[in-house]
Design brief:
Blueprint (H helix, E strand, L loop, with lengths): L3 E5 L2 E4 L6 H5 L2 H10 L3 E3 L4 E4 L2 H8 L5 E2 L28 H12 L2 H23 L4 E2 H18 L9 H10 L6 H6 L3 H11 L11 H4 L1 H4 L5 H13 L3 H16 L1 H9 L4 H11 L5 E6 L3 E3 L2 E3 L4 E5 H4 L34 H18 L3 E3 L4 E2 L8 E3 L1 E4 L1
Parallel strand pairs: 2-3, 4-10
Antiparallel strand pairs: 1-2, 3-4, 5-7, 6-14, 7-10, 8-9, 11-14, 12-13
Helix pairs in contact: 5-6, 5-17, 6-13, 7-9, 13-17, 14-17, 15-17
Length: about 400
């Protein structure tokens, strides 16, 4: 259990370690400690400030001028150390560069473009659920969570079919690198160079499908807004977050419904609850557990004076279960109002691909609700050990 002694700049000092195996496997008791310790604490082991309370997490997310992303959204401060790869042009930049890059992606992800994806996603979801129903059991991580976005998301972006499996370890690298250089990071980076090279090559204009969303990024190159290299980097930024989080959410969704049969029956009775059900899943089991920001100046937050160039960890998973914000927060309820949850972040750096993720999960949940009467766990699940993301490594399931 985390202890406390003394204060730094008025913040309680904790020996809590959000990257320990115990914390990762069962974060919720530690989240409660983090919230109860104060609005803002100092993590002695990592020399960083932290908050697990909703109000403070939201305040940081909504003030990018004071709490910047350009210093990296993980533990490392890019202003002081070199990142493992060139920074993401979306996640790890600040205005005005971020504003330009975000506008380029937003143009490619127009409402018309998203509407065009709906029928294809629906068709693939119905077919996948139909195949899983034919199996005595399946691994919800590989056979559902990863299989669906590797097909529909990669198709939508226009990524070539050969080698798409590289997108899974690539996301693993990107998000593990947001934590410390520990054993989880080292394992994720084992084949890092080959994976990163494949992804970079797949993002080049010449290798993108002419009718995918990725090639639309290069319209900004033709308009003189981006260089060719920047165009490929924006596509890569899009890919970084497009697979892992959705894969985790899909596997977690079937687990939550298997273990909360009343909620499953509520969805079966009303498949239109698929979209709000996903919002509750994002709140209840946040796929992104932590993000960091870097202070751009001395700032006072929650009565604590924080110097410039300090890292602050925001526990999104904790904020999404903060009883100061949510009633009965540890209850999974697909009919609750989840407005304001921070499962996708918030503000100018809110997840750029969240509308595609919502569409993917909605189509799977609808296909399940209309074809499946019961979902059951048929073996011992294994939780994923990961510095940043929450999900399963293995999840044996059966559909009836």
């Amino acid at each position: 259990m985390a202890g406390m002694d003394a204060t730094i700049s008025g913040a309680p000092v904790m020996d809590l370690d959000p990257f320990s195996e115990e914390y990762i496997l069962n974060p919720y008791p530690y989240h409660a400690q983090l919230r109860d310790a104060g609005q803002l604490v100092f993590l002695e082991k990592w020399n960083a400030y932290a908050t697990g309370r909703y109000a403070e997490v939201r305040a940081i997310l909504e003030d990018p001028a004071t709490f910047c992303s350009g210093g990296g959204v993980g533990l490392a401060n890019f202003h002081k150390e070199k990142p493992w790869r060139p920074p993401s042009m979306l996640l790890e930049t600040d205005p005005p560069e971020h504003t330009r890059n975000r506008a380029v992606i937003s143009r490619a992800l127009s409402p018309a473009a998203l509407r065009a994806l709906r029928s294809k996603f629906e068709e693939e979801a119905v077919a996948l659920v139909g195949r899983l129903l034919q199996q005595d059991s399946f691994d919800a991580v590989k056979d559902l969570g990863e299989a669906f976005p590797l097909k529909v998301f990669a198709d939508a972006i226009g990524i070539r079919p050969e080698g798409r499996q590289n997108l899974i370890p690539y996301g693993d690298m990107v998000f593990n690198a947001m934590g410390p250089r520990n054993a989880l990071y080292a394992k994720a980076m084992e084949n890092g160079e080959d994976v990163a090279n494949w992804v970079w090559d797949a993002c080049q204009r010449r290798n993108l499908s002419p009718d995918g969303l990725g090639i639309r990024i290069f319209d900004a190159v033709d308009d003189g807004i981006l260089t060719d290299e920047e165009g490929a980097k924006v596509v890569r930024s899009f890919l970084s977050a497009g697979i892992d989080t959705t894969a985790n959410s899909l596997a977690t969704a079937v687990y939550c419904f298997a273990t909360h049969p009343d909620q499953w029956q509520a969805l079966r009775a009303k498949p239109d609850l698929a979209r709000p059900a996903f919002e509750e899943l994002l709140r209840f089991e946040s796929p992104f557990q932590t993000f960091f920001r870097t202070t751009t100046r001395e700032v006072e937050l929650a009565g604590v004076t924080i110097p410039a160039e300090e890292k602050i960890m925001m526990s999104l998973g904790s904020a999404n279960r903060d009883p100061r914000q949510w009633s009965d927060p540890d209850r999974f309820d697909i009919t609750r109002s989840t407005i304001g949850h921070v499962g996708f972040g918030m503000g100018i750096h809110g997840c750029v691909g969240q509308m595609i993720a919502r569409l993917e999960v909605e189509m799977i949940l609808r296909a399940l609700a209309t074809q499946v009467s019961s979902i059951e766990v048929v073996g011992e699940p294994r939780q994923r050990l990961h510095n940043t993301l929450r999900g399963f490594e293995y999840l044996p399931m059966r559909l009836r």
